[in-house]
Amino acid sequence: MFELSEIEELANQVNLSILYEIAKNSAQIGNEILKVNYNKIQKISSKGRKGDLVTNVDLEVENKIKEYLLEKTPNISINAEESGKLTKSSDLTWCIDPLDGTTNYSHGYPFFGTSIGLVYKNKPIIGAISVPYLNELYSACIGLGSFCNDSELKVSNPSNLSDSLLVTGFSYDRFETEDNNYAEFCYLTHKTRGVRRGGAAAVDLAFVAAGKVDGYWERGLEAWDLAAGAIIVKEAGGIISDYPSGEFNLSSGRILACSPSLENEIKNELDKVSPFKKNLYT
């Protein structure tokens, strides 16, 4: 992750404040579409992997966001979940998840959102996550802090892991690989007050930034899942890294996001866990 001092050259070339407003606006473009179509989806399709769904709503929201971003920032690349990459000349890229939590949304489970992240040389610098069912907009710009609507965010500060509430998820490849987070989930459930599985990575990260949960880890994610939430957690005073060790890399699909007070303890505990054998649950 960048520090503000590392992007002085970029800050001299573009107006980050304007891009921040564009990110927040684009994250909210789909709010009414998501609300109107909630429990009224016309079409649900599989992308090929078990559990990996796309609806008519995902596509409609993504198209509207892309139209807006191409109008406002025609020289910035786009990496969108449903339509893929549109490469421009800039070192900046918008990462778009029009409906994070599609499976939740398609079942009428109210845990979903729209995630817009702006990355510079593959590192997040601006993020906006709209959670329309809660009327909440989480956002951050490097060096300016994190916010939910107009309230500034700060991660929690639990004294130890046993007092914490964590959240995680299971990648779509969990049906093919033993390294699927099942064992970590069970293990940390016994080391904490509980582990939740929300089903929307961007919203999980927003909740870490808000202190609603104390930490989040997951693997097998995409840039559009992580870009916005990573900078929102960092600007709220949280730790963003790989696990059980290493620096955060947007391309790796792995993330640990937590309060600084929990970082070492979570990493140490995750390092102790070996995956379950498939015959245990198949």
TrEMBL record:
Do the record's keywords include Metal-binding? yes
One Pfam family from the record = Inositol_P
Keyword list, A-Z: Hydrolase, Magnesium, Metal-binding
Q: Which domain of life is it from?
A: Bacteria
Q: What class of enzyme is it?
A: hydrolase
Query: Which processes are annotated in GO (biological process)?
Result: inositol metabolic process; phosphatidylinositol phosphate biosynthetic process; signal transduction
Quote the EC number. 3.1.3.25
User: Per the record, what are the reactions this protein catalyses?
Assistant: a myo-inositol phosphate + H2O = myo-inositol + phosphate
Cofactors per UniProt?
A: Mg(2+)
Q: List the Gene Ontology MF annotations in alphabetical order.
A: inositol monophosphate 1-phosphatase activity; metal ion binding
Q: Which residues bind Mg(2+)?
A: 81, 97, 99-100, 225
Matching PANTHER family: INOSITOL MONOPHOSPHATASE, INOSITOL-1-MONOPHOSPHATASE-RELATED
Q: Say which family it is in.
A: Belongs to the inositol monophosphatase superfamily.
What protein name does the entry list?
Answer: Inositol-1-monophosphatase
Organism name = Prochlorococcus marinus str. SB
Output the lineage of the source organism: Bacteria, Bacillati, Cyanobacteriota, Cyanophyceae, Synechococcales
